[in-house]
Design goal:
- Pfam families: ACAS_N, AMP-binding, AMP-binding_C.
- With 634 residues, the chain is of the alpha/beta class.
- It folds into two domains: 487 residues, ANL, N-terminal domain (Rossmann fold, 3-Layer(aba) Sandwich), CATH 3.40.50.12780; 123 residues, GMP Synthetase, Chain A, domain 3.
- The chain is 32% helix and 24% strand.
- The chain has 21 helices and 30 strands.
- The protein has an eight-stranded mixed β-sheet, with helices on both faces.
- Helix 11 links the parallel strand 16 and strand 17.
- Helix 1 crosses helix 2, helix 5 crosses helix 6 and helix 7 crosses helix 8.
- The N and C termini lie far apart (56 Å).
- The model has no long low-confidence stretch (mean pLDDT 93).
- Bound molecules: ligand 6R9.
C-alpha cells in the first residue's frame, strides 16, 4: 500500500487523479502488497446497470492470512487487540498477534469439527468480548460466511436475520455487560431459535456466569471444545469474490437488507483506507468505539486495522459507565493515538461538564474520527477544542454498510478539515451529485443526490437472496450509478457536506429545506441539547416543520414560551424565516436506532398524527420514548 500513501494535499490530488484515470492499475498496485495464493486474471469486471461487479477476478486468498499469519514473523509479540472490559476494575487484556493466531486457529478447528463448511452461514450474537473477534476471524479462516447481529437486538430481530440467511449455527455467550446492566443473551437466543429450523448448533462462551439453560443436542459450552482441538488450522483457499460476510442494515422501512460483502476487494479497500485516513503508524494504538455488530466495527476495528498489523482497542462498555469520563480514562490508560467515535456519543458527552475530559491526559491523541451521521457544528467544535485540544485533525468519515469502507473523508494531516464537511473523496472514489432529472450536476456550490459513478473494491455485491432488490434499491434511481440515498452539497472548493438522507428533505411552500442545517441552527441555542426536525402535511404550505427538541438540564427551568421564540429566532437568522417551526415539542429523548441514528420515520408519523402503524419499534435503543412523544404531541 506504500505506493499510494498520501502524505500531503498535493500528493492527494496526484494520487486521486491517477486513481480516476487508471483505476485498474491503481488498485492492482495497492493489491500487490497483500498475500495471495494466486493473483487475479483481471482487476475489474462490471456492469453497474445490472448491479454486477467483480474485483480481482479469479484471484485466490484468505483474508486471515493477511490479517494475522503474515504479521507473525515481524509482529508476533505485538498487541493485536487490547480488550478493555466494561468494568474498569477488571484488567484489560493484551492479545498479541501470536495469541490471536492460536485462538483463531482453535476456533476454526472447533467450527470445522461442528460441521461448518465453506459457504455455510454462522450467526454471531456476542457482546464486545475477544471471542467475538475470534469467531469472526475463524469463520473467515474456514470460508464460512459470518453474519454478526448486534447483541442489543431483540429475539425477534435476531430470528428474522437468522431465518433470512438460513444460518446453521449461532455463537453466543451466557450474557453480556453493558454499563450497570447484565443482558441475558442466551435467553434471547433461546427465544429467537424457537423459530429457526436452520440452526443445528449453538456454541456458548462464558462471560457473566449467568445461570442459563442448555438445550440437549443443540447447545454446547465453547471453552471445553476449544481445549480439545489443535492450535493450527489450514486457511481455506477463497476466491476473491467468495462471500466474506453478511451484515444487515438497519433500513428505516421494510425487511432488513442482508448486505453481502466479498473477500478480495473488501480486504484491499478497508486496509488501504484505514492506513490513509487515520495515518496509522507502527507504534500507534487505535481505538474505534463502535460495536463489531455494525459495519464500522467490521471494517475499522477488525479487518482494516488487522490487515495493517495495527493495535486495535475493543471496548466492551459504554461512554457513561461508571461515569462520563470513561472514554477519556481509556484513552489515557492505553495511550490511544487515533480515536474514532460517533456524533451521538460526542453530543452526549458534550452535555456533561468538561471536568470529565480535563481530568485525564489525552496528549497521546493524534487523530480524531467521526462516523455514522452528520456531525453538527457545535459537537465538532467541542470535539476539536476539548478532546483534540485543537491539535488533532478530525476525520469526518462518510460511508455506509453498503460501501464497505470510508468513501468521503479528510486524510489526516493532508486534507484541511472544515466543520461538518466530509471534505473530499478518497482515492478510487468517484462521487457525483445528481438532480431530479437524473442529470449530473457539474461545478461547485451545488446540491444534489449523492451517487458514485464508478465501482470501488469494497462495495457490497448484493443483498443476500435478493439481487433484484439490490439492483432496485441502489442502481435504478440513477441508472448506471450507485445511489447512496444521501443528499450532499459541494462547496466552492469542491468539499462535500452530507446533508442527510434524501428523504429528510422537506418542501415547505415550494422551498427545499434540508432538515440537518435547521437542526444545526437549533442546536446552537445554549439551552438545546439535541433536536430532530421532520415535515408534516400542511394545508397551505404543502408541508410544514415539526421540531422535537431535547433541552440541556440547565435549559429545563427556562420559560418554554420564551425558548420557543428564541429558537425560531435562531432558525430565522441561520436559514431564514421560511424554515421556522410550525410546531415545537420539548421531549426527553428521540427514538434512535442502536447505532445512534434518529428514526425519523417514526417522528414523521407522529408529526402527521398517523400513529396507527409505527412498524417495529422493538429494535430501538429507547422504545419507551415513543409513547411519551405521542402522548405530548402538539
Ligand atoms: C458507516 C455507517 C450509513 C448512513 C449514511 C449517512 C449516515 C454515516 C456519516 C453520515 C454524515 C458522516 N452517515 N457517516 N452522514 N456524515 N460522516 O454509519 O454505516 O450504519 O450503514 O449508515 O449514515 O446517512 O447513508 P450505516
Amino acid at each position: 500500500m506504500g505506493v499510494y500513501e498520501v502524505k500531503s494535499l498535493e500528493q492527494y490530488f496526484k494520487v486521486y487523479k491517477r486513481s480516476v484515470r487508471e483505476p485498474r492499475k491503481f488498485w492492482s498496485k495497492i493489491a500487490e502488497d497483500f498475500v495471495w495464493y494466486k493473483k487475479w486474471d483481471q482487476i475489474l469486471e462490471y456492469r453497474l446497470e445490472e448491479a454486477e461487479v467483480k474485483w480481482f477476478v479469479n484471484a485466490k486468498l484468505n483474508i486471515t492470512k493477511n490479517c494475522i499469519d503474515r504479521h507473525l514473523a515481524k509482529r508476533g509479540d505485538k498487541t493485536a487487540i487490547i480488550f478493555e472490559p466494561n468494568n474498569p476494575e477488571e484488567p484489560a487484556q493484551h492479545i498479541t498477534y501470536n495469541d490471536l493466531y492460536e485462538r483463531v486457529c482453535k476456533m476454526a478447528n472447533v467450527l470445522r469439527e461442528q460441521g461448518i463448511e465453506k459457504g455455510d452461514r454462522v450467526c454471531i450474537y456476542l457482546p464486545m468480548i475477544p471471542e467475538l473477534a475470534v469467531a469472526v476471524l475463524a469463520c473467515a479462516r474456514i470460508g464460512a460466511i459470518h453474519s454478526v447481529v448486534f447483541a442489543g437486538f431483540s429475539s425477534k430481530a435476531l430470528s428474522t436475520r437468522i431465518q433470512d440467511s438460513e444460518c446453521k449455527m449461532v455463537i453466543t455467550s451466557d450474557g453480556g455487560y453493558r454499563g450497570n446492566k447484565t443482558i441475558d443473551l442466551k435467553g434471547i437466543v433461546d427465544e429467537a431459535l424457537e423459530d429457526c429450523p436452520s440452526i443445528q448448533s449453538v456454541l456458548v462462551a462464558k462471560r457473566t456466569n449467568t445461570e442459563i439453560s442448555m438445550k440437549e443436542g443443540r447447545d454446547q459450552w465453547l471453552q471445553p471444545l476449544l481445549d480439545n482441538v489443535s492450535n493450527v488450522s489450514v486457511a481455506e483457499v477463497m476466491d476473491a469474490e467468495d462471500p466474506l460476510f453478511i451484515l444487515y442494515t438497519s433500513g428505516s422501512t421494510g425487511r432488513p437488507k442482508g448486505m453481502l460483502h466479498t473477500t478480495g476487494g473488501y480486504m484491499v479497500y478497508t486496509a488501504y483506507t484505514f492506513k490513509n485516513v487515520f495515518q496509522y503508524e507502527e507504534k500507534d494504538v487505535y481505538w474505534c468505539t463502535a460495536d463489531i455488530g455494525w459495519i464500522t466495527g467490521h471494517s475499522y476495528i477488525l479487518y482494516g486495522p488487522l490487515a495493517n498489523g495495527a493495535t486495535t482497542v475493543m471496548f466492551e462498555g459504554v461512554p457513561s459507565y461508571p461515569d462520563y469520563g470513561r472514554f477519556w480514562e481509556v484513552v489515557d490508560k492505553h495511550k490511544v493515538t487515533q480515536f474514532y467515535t460517533a456524533p451521538t456519543a460526542i453530543r452526549a458527552l458534550a452535555k456533561q461538564s468538561t471536568d470529565w475530559v480535563t481530568k485525564y491526559d489525552l496528549s497521546s491523541l493524534k487523530v480524531l474520527g467521526s462516523v455514522g451521521e452528520p456531525i453538527n457544528e457545535e459537537a465538532w467544535h467541542w470535539y476539536n477544542d476539548h478532546v483534540g485540544n485543537k491539535k488533532c485533525p478530525i476525520v469526518d468519515t462518510w460511508w455506509q454498510t453498503e460501501t464497505g469502507g470510508i468513501m468521503l473523508s479528510p486524510i489526516a494531516f493532508s486534507t484541511p478539515t472544515k466543520p461538518t464537511y466530509a471534505t473530499l473523496p478518497l482515492p478510487g472514489v468517484q462521487p457525483v451529485l445528481m438532480d431530479d432529472k437524473r442529470n449530473e450536476i457539474e461545478g461547485n456550490q451545488v446540491v444534489g443526490s449523492l451517487c458514485i459513478k464508478f465501482p470501488w473494491p469494497a462495495m457490497a455485491r448484493t443483498i443476500w437472496g435478493d439481487h433484484r432488490r439490490y439492483k432496485e434499491t441502489y442502481f435504478s434511481a440513477f441508472p448506471g450509478k450507485y445511489f447512496t440515498g444521501d443528499g450532499a452539497l459541494r462547496d466552492e472548493v469542491g468539499y462535500y457536506r452530507i446533508t442527510g438522507r434524501v428523504d429528510d428533505v422537506v418542501i415547505v411552500s415550494g422551498h427545499n429545506l434540508g432538515t440537518a442545517p435547521i437542526e444545526d441552527a437549533i442546536n446552537e441555542h445554549p439551552a438545546v441539547a439535541e433536536s430532530a426536525i421532520v415535515g408534516f402535511p400542511h394545508e397551505i404550505k404543502g408541508n410544514a416543520l415539526y421540531g422535537f427538541i431535547i433541552l440541556k438540564e440547565t435549559g429545563e427551568a427556562r420559560n418554554r414560551e420564551n425558548l420557543t421564540r428564541e429558537i425560531n429566532q435562531y432558525i430565522s437568522e441561520h436559514i431564514g424565516p421560511i424554515a421556522k417551526l410550525e410546531k415545537l415539542q420539548f421531549v426527553s429523548g428521540l427514538p434512535k436506532t442502536r447505532s445512534g441514528k434518529i428514526m425519523r420515520r417514526i417522528l414523521r408519523k407522529i408529526a402527521s398524527k398517523d400513529t396507527s402503524n409505527l412498524g417495529d419499534t422493538s429494535t430501538l435503543l429507547n422504545p419507551e420514548v415513543v409513547s411519551e412523544i405521542i402522548e405530548n404531541a402538539v
